[in-house]
Amino acid sequence: MKDPIVLSMYARKGGAGRTIMCLQLAGACAEYGANVLVIDQDPQGSLSKNLFGAGAVERLRPYETTAAIYDKDIDDYSRVIRQTEIPNIAIVLKQAIEEVRLRIDNRVTL
Ligand SMILES: Nc1ncnc2c1ncn2[C@@H]1O[C@H](COP(=O)(O)OP(=O)(O)O)[C@@H](O)[C@H]1O
Ligand SMILES: [Mg+2]
User: Which residue of 5, 28, 40, 81 pairs with 94 in a disulfide if CB–CB is 3.0 to 4.6 A?
Assistant: First the structure.
């Protein structure tokens, strides 16, 4: 297997086009034949809502979202990666931060 190429969209400012850039890049790479894994780290979770549906995302348990990556008690990531309806695009979903009540490192509560 080839080494994965990691692309990060990061900006402090809102409305800078991070979400749309992720969607466009993911779509372009998938169309090109790449296997794409989108990891949503935005507290608003808009990428997840776009790719998976707002209702479906909010019904998830925290261990099925990005929060699981930061929980040292969770070592089974099989529930974290979801196939989207788009071929070749999978996603690690993010819930809006207000709804995530998972303890991180058993000390900090989001
Ligand atoms: N290149 C662009 N041209 C026109 N509109 C854009 C462009 N990039 C983003 N937008 C629009 O600007 C708004 C904010 O983009 P978004 O991707 O949600 O930003 P962010 O995730 O950084 O907050 C959205 O309505 C999006 O459709
Ligand atoms: Mg965004």
Answer: 40
Domains of the chain plus CATH, in order, are 18-109 (3.40.50.300)
Taking the centre of ligand 2 as the mean of its atom positions, its distance from the CA of residue 86, in whole angstroms, is: 20
Write out the DSSP string of 35-84: -EEEE---TT-HHHHHHH-HHHHHTS-GGGSGGGGG-TT----TTTEEE-
Number of other residues whose CB lies within 10 A of the CB of residue 17: 11
Whole-angstrom distance, CA of residue 38 vs CA of residue 92: 6
Q: Whose CA is nearest to atom 8 of ligand 1?
A: 17
The predicted pLDDT at position 18 comes to 94
pTM summary value: 0.82
Distance, CA 19 to ligand 1 centroid (Å)? 7
